């Protein structure tokens, strides 16, 4: 059985499971939910961590120095049992360490930690990756949190995503789960995108470059969620068409390229971590009750 850790601030309550170190709920203290509930009729995820790859690999296999290893979509961390390393009233940290089982599919020794912390109206999620092996370690890491659409109190209102940088990043789509090289016109206009379910009929919208370090997801004239990203240059937006949630996904790394190599080191935006080094990736979200 997985363990659930509950953390609180003056304004928020969150629950995190040892399975995948995945956040299970995020509520304001008045009892309103902001995170998707994981209804499997649409999508059973809530806020999985993506490691050691983001997205798919060709034929669900990665290659390391020419050797092939089976690797499912978004990697194995989200389906693994993590160990609770530290917890307080407002913070918890789970860890996932390489094992005989992980080495069979990803031949690198690592320690991955994930910390959830609450302060006021803000949640911060921080991942740290450590290379404990004897050679450089290629990997991707991403977040996949799903928030309610409509937001609480935003029923009947238009919902928008507005980039802090006012950018109009080009759009990339998926072909059989792999990113295409075709760059499509941006759906953003001066940094603003009005959400519509039909935008996701062709799967996720991926913005490999230019989305910046922050955005606001909002119901017009209502509540909003303000996001900040650290060391996460790629952005995806995804919804199961017609489902009452939107995934706002900051990544460092994307799916492999359609028609490209299976080598994990050559996947777009892959991190290569030197021996003994650590890398950190974080996002925070602040709930602004309009």
Offer a quick outline of the entry.
This protein has one helix at 100-103; strands at 4-8, 12-17, 23-28, 49-50, 61-64, 67-70, 83-87, 91-97, 110-119, 122-131, 137-139, 141-143, 146-148, 159-163, 174-175, 178-179, 192-194, 205-207, 214-219, 224-230, 234-238, 245-252, 271-273, 278-288. It has 290 residues and is mainly beta.
Shape: globular
Q: Stretches where pLDDT falls below 50 for ≥5 residues?
A: none
Structural class: mainly beta
Written as H for each helix and E for each strand, in order along the chain, the element string is EEEEEEEEHEEEEEEEEEEEEEEEE
Tell me about the largest β-sheet.
9 strands, antiparallel
Quickly count the helices.
Answer: 1
Q: Helical percent range? A: under 10%
Rg over CA atoms, rounded to whole Å, is 18 Å
**Nearest-integer average pLDDT:** 97
Order of the strands making up the biggest sheet: 7-8-9-10-24-20-19-14-17
% residues in beta strands: 35-45%
Quaternary assembly: single chain
Straight-line N-to-C gap: 39 Å
Number of strands: 24
């Amino acid at each position: 059985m997985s363990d659930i850790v509950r953390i609180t601030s003056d304004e928020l309550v969150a629950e995190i499971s040892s399975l995948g170190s995945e956040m299970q709920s995020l509520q304001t203290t008045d009892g309103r939910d902001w995170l998707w509930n994981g209804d499997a009729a649409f999508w059973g995820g809530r806020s999985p961590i993506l490691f050691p790859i983001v997205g798919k690999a060709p034929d669900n296999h990665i290659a390391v120095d020419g050797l092939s290893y089976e690797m499912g979509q978004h990697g194995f961390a989200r389906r693994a049992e993590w160990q609770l390393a530290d917890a307080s009233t407002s913070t918890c940290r789970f860890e996932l360490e390489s094992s005989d089982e992980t080495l069979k599919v990803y031949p690198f020794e690592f320690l991955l930690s994930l910390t959830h912390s609450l302060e006021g109206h803000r949640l911060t999620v921080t991942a740290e990756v450590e290379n404990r092996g004897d050679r450089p370690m290629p990997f991707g890491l991403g977040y996949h949190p799903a928030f309610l659409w409509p937001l609480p109190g935003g029923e009947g209102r238009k919902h928008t995503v507005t980039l802090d940088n006012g950018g109009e990043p080009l759009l990339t789509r998926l072909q059989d789960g792999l990113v295409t090289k075709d760059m499509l016109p941006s759906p953003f206009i001066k940094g603003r995108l009005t959400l519509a379910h039909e935008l996701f009929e062709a799967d996720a919208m991926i913005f490999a470059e230019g989305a910046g370090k922050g955005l606001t997801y909002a119901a017009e004239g209502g509540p909003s969620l303000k996001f900040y990203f650290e060391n996460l240059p790629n952005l995806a937006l995804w919804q199961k068409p017609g489902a009452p949630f939107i995934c706002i996904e900051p990544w460092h790394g994307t799916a492999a390229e359609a028609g490209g190599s299976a080598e994990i080191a050559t996947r777009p935006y892959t991190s290569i971590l030197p021996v003994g080094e650590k890398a950190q990736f974080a996002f925070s979200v602040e709930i602004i009750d309009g």
